[in-house]
Design brief:
Length: 405
């Protein structure tokens, strides 16, 4: 199992030093994370990597997942969509059901811990069943322009927490509690991000029947309309008139996302019979495959219309790839336009930037180097562990004017 020292020489030294200090102060305390899925999406990705590292640091850490049925996850997906600005129909019964399922979970989960991190809106009502400890709501989604009524419902719960954490500052709201901004991060030593040999990359390409004869444009994402998979296909078609290339759309649907299947059908139909479009439906935990796909790509797209942060952007940047990202949510926090990647606002803009990268390999490789360096300094998992521990420690020492570390 990995430990902090494995990151020396990779992560910034100051982060490692601060983590050691904080871990000494918090050792033997209990840290509980609760979210709504063990697989699929960025939250599960981060918790899966962070939990063992925290326990190596001497913190007693648990990661629990709330259980729900189809109806519950259909409601929570609507909540998710509305918080990202898409109006959906809600009835009082739906809100009651959201809370009732949380109440049921509160009876079976052990909620006792020194600090409880509740991730996203699905389990947010659990705060009603709090017994002890500090409770922090960790919002990962793009709530910059939510449907107001839905935000009011969710913030009525969120307001009861001790603190809230958002991924970027434009998501933070006026709330009666402490708020922190902490961007998500990736683990450079995970199967998804560690180095691969050319043979390993070739093996994945041939298993997925992707010939490496032309430049590859890649988007890795859950099949979710906010990730704009059809917009990606349209941009590829504009490029294809001038530059021969392949498009790979790789993804899965998460267990807490009931819309995935329908989106997969829509996208497959829209792609038609073009032999240069490869739609790959990946089961969960195919990290090495995703790693290899990102490494074989010439250009990586994340053409989201809404995006909490976009770990797929970070992953590709870490692999030295030029990334073209939608100018939304957390993506501009990672992509400095023209320096660490390109930001786009339209399909035409995406096509223009893809062609620029395909036609300028030297510029693309410089951009990729900048991207990797930027991720090293800002978006590695050690920085996030540092920040989570620091928020916890700061909350415990709130009344003190000086915090000793
Ligand atoms: N991912 C995966 N398999 C897939 C699609 C995505 O493992 O089929 C991973 C992806 O590599 C990234 C995370 O899921 O680590 C997605 O996080 P992101 O922040 O990009 O988007 P979210 O799904 O949380 O909206």
């Amino acid at each position: 199992m990995l430990q902090l020292s494995d990151y020396s020489g990779i992560s910034p030294k100051s982060d490692l030093q601060l983590i050691s200090r904080l871990a000494d102060k918090l050792s033997s305390k209990q840290f509980l994370h609760i979210n709504s899925t063990k697989e699929g999406g960025g939250v599960a990705e981060i918790l899966g990597r962070m939990t063992p590292l925290l326990s190596k640091l001497g913190i007693v850490v648990r990661w629990e997942v709330i259980q729900g049925d189809q109806r519950f996850f259909t409601i929570t997906k609507k909540i998710h969509n509305s918080l990202q600005g898409l109006p959906e129909e809600f009835t009082d019964d739906m809100w009651k059901y959201h809370e009732a399922i949380n109440e049921k979970n509160a009876k079976t989960l052990d909620l006792n811990a020194d600090v409880v991190f509740i991730h996203d809106p699905q389990p947010v009502p659990l705060i009603k069943f709090r017994d002890k400890g500090l409770w922090i709501w960790r919002c990962h989604i793009d709530v910059a322009n939510p449907v107001e009524e839905v935000w009011n419902r969710i913030s009525a719960y969120a307001g009861k927490y001790d603190a809230a954490i958002f991924s970027v500052s434009k998501f933070a709201k006026q709330m009666p509690l402490d708020e922190f901004i902490i961007t998500p991060t990736i683990d450079p030593l995970s199967e998804k991000n560690n180095d691969l040999t050319a043979d390993e990359i070739n093996e994945v390409a041939s298993r997925f029947k992707i010939p490496l004869d032309k430049p590859i444009i890649l988007q890795v994402s859950r099949f979710d309309r906010f990730k704009d998979p059809k917009g990606v296909i349209r941009a590829y078609r504009m490029v294809k008139k001038y530059n021969d290339c392949r498009l790979v759309l790789a993804g899965s649907s998460a267990t807490d996302d009931p819309e995935g299947e329908a989106v997969i059908r829509e996208v497959t139909e829209f792609a038609g019979s073009d032999p240069d479009i490869h739609i790959l439906l990946l089961p969960a935990f195919r990290d090495k495959d995703i790693n290899a796909l990102q490494r074989m790509a010439t250009v990586v797209l994340q053409k989201s219309l809404k995006e909490g942060f976009g770990l797929t952007v970070t992953e590709a940047m870490w692999k030295g790839k030029p990334v073209i990202g939608g100018n939304v949510g957390g993506i501009p926090t990672q992509i400095i336009d023209g320096v660490t990647g390109f930001l786009v606002n339209s399909e035409e803009g995406s096509a223009f930037r893809i062609r620029r990268i395909l036609n300028n390999p030297d510029m693309a490789s410089k951009m990729g180097e900048n991207a990797r360096q930027y991720v090293r300094n800002h978006f590695l998992i050690t920085r996030q562990i540092r920040d989570y521990l620091f928020v916890w420690y700061a909350m415990l020492n709130k009344s003190k004017r000086v915090m000793e570390l």
